[in-house]
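User: Some background: our group keeps a shared notebook of sequences we're curious about, and every so often someone picks one and asks for a predicted structure to add to the entry. Today it's my turn. The entry only has the sequence so far, pasted here. Could you supply the structure so I can complete it?
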Amino acid sequence: GQGPRSANIIEFLPMWQPVDPEMNLQVEGEARVSANSNPVSIPRTTGSLFDELFESKPANSALFPTDNPIKSLDEYDQLSNEGKAKTLLETSNFSGKLPRPRAVRTSATNPLDELLLPLIDESVRRQYYIRDAENRGDMETAERLRSTRSKRQEAKEKAIEAGSMGNDDALEFWESEAEFLESLRADVTQDEGSYSRFLDRDYWYEKERQATARRVDRSKFGNLLDGVE
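Assistant: Of course. Here's the predicted structure to add to the notebook entry:
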């Protein structure tokens, strides 16, 4: 009788062994390079084409962008139009087209900003929008944006404040906290709450896990140093 419909027909064919050692088998459509010079192609079946839909993605395949090139508003302000265009082209989550130079020169608002701001660190983007609202005299929008800051942005701003006051201990604490909060986020370019919170790691779980890891590391070193004076 017939096997399962999803089975590949190649599985039911007898194994073909080439007599000529310079020949090898290769399934059509597979980008596989062989040292042999005379490959014999086997037609690819429809079933084998659909099999790829259910294969696991490579470990380095990211659901969210992994690059975050702009870490502060100062860094963003230092970008020229050429720098913004270059950053867009190098950003993994940009798939559009750059505006023409004439459009950049003549537009009331920079089209490069309109393309780049949605793709950068959410804390930098919000700082940019708060400043823009204040410059336009729209204090209501500025206050709304400020009141809905992420905990990570608050930590970054407290680090800046501590640094300006020369408080090194507070600076180190808030920089570490901001880095930790960033490590929890699946995507720091999206606003907090704009995607399912279950995609982020849990704050208290990660705190406890790291504390446990530190205790284990200390116990290992303690065993190694036993009897050493």
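Suggested note for the entry: The mean pLDDT is 77. Residues 203-224 form the longest helix (22 residues).
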